[in-house]
Specification:
heterodimer, A: two-stranded antiparallel ribbon, 16% strand, B: alpha/beta, 14 helices, 8 strands
Chain lengths: 90, 271
């Protein structure tokens, strides 16, 4: 460490404080959200399986929280055999 | 009217057990009838910190499972006669405690004691949620350090949602107890200050326990610090915190063990 750095060096506590404030504001906003997502995933799964055969792990539900709007992304992977079922149903 | 207090933190190693022993002893020293209850099933340590490890016969799990009656499991402190310990068991069975079983034990303890102080295990698993489940008030032990503050925030969220009081729509009384605080380092900007921690957690302060060699000395000899060295800075801080729990107004301060010039010149204190 140079002599200049020695004099310039300030405590690390303000960095800790800022990092915590940013992290916790995010964590508080998303707290409980995972429960909502699990619920949505289950209900979406029920709705889909009425018409298509899908694997549980092939249904992904994700929420991205933005400053003004949030997006809900539902990703369903349908095997081609199930696609045939879809075609015959319609 | 008995009060059930949970001493919790989320993070391990911040001083829950030390604080449970010290606050329990301090309240008992003030004439209150106190039971300290170890909820850390499988990793019990409150007995060791209280110096009662060789007197454990029955434990919380035995009582919950109906193998022993509560009076058989309670251990009376040899130094303060109004202080009692209910140890945890060393079983590895994670599901040894049931919610109904714990509810019954807490109910019976409420009838016999002024204070029931539950020492929570670290983490947010079953043991920790059961320890806080029936509490009227919580002491959240926090070190002025990022991971401890983050975990305290998480625990505050659980206290406000998963306790019986919260589920009934009532407010659980919450207090922050800052431990291992070094005023000098905080003043130099090397450690989060009391104000930083309180602002981030927006929860009222119960006390500030300074970093102190005396805390380790107390656990070495198996005595709550308020009994083994009541004059030490940490003990004075715990005694003040206990008075605040009782509802007394005690000005907030950071007691100090700083040695004077004499001690510095003549080296270590004799003890």
């Amino acid at each position: 460490m140079t002599l200049f750095n020695l004099f310039r060096r300030r405590g690390s506590a303000p960095v800790a404080r800022e990092r915590l404030q940013i992290l916790l504001s995010y964590e508080r906003a998303t707290r409980g959200q995972s429960d909502l997502l699990a619920l949505l995933r289950e209900e979406i799964l029920v709705a889909i399986t009425k018409h298509i055969t899908v694997e549980r792990e092939n249904v992904q539900v994700r929420m991205d929280r933005g400053t003004s709007v949030s997006t809900l992304a539902i990703d369903v992977e349908i095997p081609n055999s199930a696609g045939l079922l879809l075609a015959t149903a319609s | 009217m008995a009060k059930v207090l949970v001493v919790t933190s989320g993070k391990g190693g911040v001083g829950k057990t030390t604080s449970t022993a010290a606050l329990g002893a301090a309240l008992a020293q003030a004439g209150q009838k106190v039971a300290v209850v170890d909820f850390d099933v499988g990793l019990r340590n409150l007995d060791l910190v209280m110096g009662a490890e060789r007197r454990v016969v029955f434990d919380l799990v035995n009582v919950v499972q109906g193998i022993a009656k509560l009076p058989q499991a309670l251990i009376r402190d040899k130094r303060v006669e109004t202080l009692w310990l209910l140890p945890a068991s060393q079983t590895r069975d994670k599901d040894a405690l049931t919610e109904q079983g714990v509810a019954d034990v807490i109910k019976e303890l409420r009838r016999q004691f002024d204070w029931v102080i539950c020492d929570s295990p670290a983490g947010i698993e079953r043991g920790a949620t059961l320890a806080m489940r029936f509490a009227d008030a919580a002491v959240i032990v926090t070190n002025p350090e990022v991971s401890s503050v983050r975990d305290s925030d998480r625990i505050i969220g659980l206290l406000d949602s998963k306790t019986e009081k919260a589920e009934k729509g009532q407010r659980i009384e919450k207090h922050i107890l800052i431990t291992r605080y070094d005023a000098q380092r905080a003043a130099r900007g090397e450690m989060l200050t009391i104000e930083d921690v309180l602002e981030i957690l927006s929860t009222p302060l119960l006390g500030i326990i300074p970093e102190s060699e005396e805390v380790l000395r107390a656990s070495n000899v198996g005595s709550p610090i308020t009994l083994s060295n009541a004059g030490s800075a940490a003990a004075r801080a715990y005694l003040d915190a206990a008075r605040r729990l009782k509802g007394d107004t005690v000005p907030m301060s950071v007691p100090s063990d700083r040695k004077g010039l004499f001690d510095k010149l003549f080296g270590r204190r004799a003890a």
